[in-house]
């Protein structure tokens, strides 16, 4: 029987791919704690010993289906069409896991869901996956990666169902799997002419608004208490309105896989909560064997 041996909410913001010298300049002499947080997350992965890592990619937007990338392997050089002036020339080469991707589709079809597998050699990559592959050194550990999309014409409940089907497919396998929800919490960008209120750009006071900062801190506190049910109860009135990155698809699919509203996995912060051009970012680990 397969197991989900850990899950995490993980920031992927592109500023983390810049050189340390630049990051320290932006941080008033200090590096982003999200960089140290990646090292802490690598330790968690080493202890969990996953056979596969599933990434819920908040940049891979699809329409009509929750797509699961079922390719055998991926290699190339990544350039971001969003920020090509510094996120470019990133080489990558990592394995996929077609059997798990196909198993997810099979469970979803059996249960009347909308998860489907795609395996096309020309399908593009997104930095919500690539940045994690690089920072978590998944190429070096030769850990297969399966990426799941964020379907944009969904209600939030559909993401929970999608995640539930993914969790069931894992349980029916013989695999140890870690889930990574790749994305931010509140995702409102500061304007192009924005001036920071704190000299350390990463500082939380530079998040887009005091209301978004307070909302993110509230959600983080609930995650630490394992009260994911309370987050869901407030979703429409609170977190959908901020909104979270990809309207929370990455978190909701991860949560669906580890129990949904019944999940009581207590989040362990692996980094400080930080700003990235107005968005709220943190790494948080959820120990679970759901």
Distinctive features:
12 strands, about 20% strand, Protocatechuate 4,5-dioxygenase, Chain B, alpha/beta, about 290 residues
Shape descriptor: globular
Order of helices and strands: EHHEEEEHEHEHEHHHHEEEE
Radius of gyration: 18 Å
The largest sheet is: 6 strands, mixed
CATH structural architecture: 3-Layer(aba) Sandwich
Order of strands, widest sheet: 7-2-8-1-12-9
- The beta-strand count equals 12
**Strand-residue proportion:** 15-25%
Q: How many angstroms does the end-to-end distance come to?
A: 11 Å
Average pLDDT over all residues: 96
Which segments are poorly predicted (pLDDT under 50) over 5 or more consecutive residues?
A: none
Roughly what percent helix? 25-40%
- What is the top-level CATH class? Alpha Beta
Estimated structural class: alpha/beta
CATH topology: Protocatechuate 4,5-dioxygenase, Chain B
Q: What's the helix count?
A: 9
| Overall number of domains | 1
Q: Can you tell me the CATH superfamily? A: LigB-like
């Amino acid at each position: 029987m397969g197991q989900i041996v850990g899950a995490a909410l993980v920031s992927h913001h592109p500023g983390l791919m810049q050189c340390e010298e630049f990051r320290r300049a932006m941080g008033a002499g200090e590096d982003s704690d999200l960089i140290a947080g990646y090292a802490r997350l690598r330790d968690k992965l080493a202890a969990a010993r996953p056979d596969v890592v599933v990434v819920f990619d908040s940049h891979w937007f699809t329409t009509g289906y929750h797509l699961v990338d079922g390719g055998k392997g991926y290699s190339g050089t990544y350039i971001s069409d969003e920020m090509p002036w510094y996120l470019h020339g990133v080489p990558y080469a990592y394995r996929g896991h077609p059997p798990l991707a196909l198993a997810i589709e099979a469970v979803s079809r059996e249960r009347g869901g909308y998860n489907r597998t795609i395996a096309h050699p020309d399908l593009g990559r997104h930095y919500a996956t690539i940045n994690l592959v690089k920072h978590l050194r998944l190429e070096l550990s030769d850990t297969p990666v399966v990426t799941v999309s964020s379907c944009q014409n969904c209600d939030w409940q559909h993401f929970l169902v999608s995640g539930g089907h993914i969790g069931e497919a894992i349980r029916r396998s013989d695999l140890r799997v870690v889930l990574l929800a790749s994305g931010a919490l509140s995702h409102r960008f500061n304007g192009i002419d924005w001036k920071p209120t704190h000299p350390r750009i990463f500082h939380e006071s530079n998040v887009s608004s005091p209301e978004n900062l307070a909302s993110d801190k509230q959600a983080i506190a609930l995650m630490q208490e394992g009260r994911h049910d309370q987050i869901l109860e407030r979703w429409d009135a609170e977190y959908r309105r901020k909104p979270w990155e990809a309207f929370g698809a990455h978190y909701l699919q991860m949560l669906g896989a580890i129990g949904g509203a019944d999940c009581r996995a207590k989040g362990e912060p692996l980094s400080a909560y930080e700003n990235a051009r107005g968005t709220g970012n943190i790494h948080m680990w959820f120990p679970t064997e759901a």
